[in-house]
Design a protein that fits this description.
Length: 332
């Protein structure tokens, strides 16, 4: 999809209190300020609507909003003015720190930016910070599986799940993905998934048969509840179960036997914490590799629809619409 690079007036979405996103968001006109020393004024090209953004508005995210606040944990923009030597007008960037991206413009500290390859698709770049990096950390941060070994995941059709399939295929790691709808099986198989089954008890039996006695070293859980337990039952002794999402909004229930007799390890991943705590050189090296894959078209996330900021009700409604086929993004 083409994005107009013409400068537009200042506009942003704001909340003055936490609560239901549809009820609490409103559009606000503003004059974008000039950047100070070490700061950069970025004009937004695209910003996705992520579960973390909704949790931020609801007040249930790991970081509480300092009200009034503009949501948006990630996005892609172009530098309009810079008070930092490393960034010039015209540079395309993403934000490694939260940057209030549901706006036409945002001013941020230069140290929180990452410069993109100039030819990268801005819609794909807007989704680079969270999902590809989460997939990368899932595959590298908990003991990298050997080529030919298996990992298992639920929500295989999610943005993270699709990134896991693409990155794992490159690494020679086999993926078994649980999904909720039958029509997703062929779709994820075409993407490169080695085994895709339904996320139910019949699917668990099919998964065990497909593994052929092999059990997975890692399990990636974005759902919780019974789905998370199914993943645990596919892990080998000492396997690691990593939770990075809670789509079902149900807690993990872990049978004692899996801990006592199988020594299953339960871990969590919040990619924001990795960005904040890992050495800056490591973080930037990972994003450089991911950006190169996105620019080359070998790491792709599907886009369902794009919306201007003042059409936020339609954007939020699209999140729960039947047949949604990818991410929903704001294009200011």
């Amino acid at each position: 999809m083409a994005i107009d690079d013409a400068t537009i007036g200042g506009q942003r979405l704001v909340i003055e209190e936490t609560g239901v996103p549809m009820d609490k968001l409103r559009v606000q006109a503003f004059s974008p300020p000039q950047p100070g020393a070490g700061q950069v004024l970025v004009r937004m090209l695209a910003a996705p609507v992520n579960p973390a953004d909704l949790n931020f508005i609801e007040g249930t995210y790991g970081v509480k909003p300092n009200l009034p606040a503009t949501p948006g944990v990630e996005g892609c923009g172009v530098v309009e003015a810079s008070g930092a030597a490393d960034y010039q007008a015209g540079d395309r960037v993403i934000f490694l720190r939260r940057a209030a991206t549901w706006a036409t413009h945002t001013v941020v500290a230069a140290e929180g930016l990452f410069k993109l390859p100039p030819a990268i698709d801005p819609l794909q770049a807007a989704m680079l910070k969270v999902n590809p990096a989460t997939a990368w950390r899932l595959l590298h941060g908990f003991g990298k599986p050997q080529a030919g070994s298996w990992i298992v995941q639920n929500a295989g059709n999610s943005a993270v799940g699709r990134c896991v399939i693409q990155l794992a295929r490159e690494l020679g790691i086999r993926t078994l993905s649980l999904v909720r709808r039958p029509e997703l099986i062929d779709e994820l198989s075409r993407l490169g998934g080695d085994c895709v089954v339904l996320d139910d008890e019949a699917g668990l039996a099919a998964a065990k048969a497909a593994l052929g006695g092999a059990t997975a070293a890692l399990a990636f859980n974005a759902v919780g509840g019974d789905s998370a337990l199914r993943l645990m039952n596919l892990l080998r002794e000492g396997g690691v179960h990593i939770t990075f999402g809670a789509m079902a909004k149900r807690p993990l229930t872990v049978p004692n036997g899996l801990l006592i007799f199988r020594d299953i390890q339960l871990r969590g991943l919040w990619v924001t914490r990795w960005i904040e705590n890992a050495p800056d050189a490591e973080v930037r090296a990972v994003y450089a590799g991911l950006a190169a894959r996105v620019a080359a078209g070998t790491l792709v996330q599907p886009v369902d629809s794009t919306h201007p900021l003042d059409a936020y009700p339609a954007a939020l409604a699209r999140l729960t619409a039947e047949g949604r086929a990818g991410k929903v993004l704001f294009v200011p």
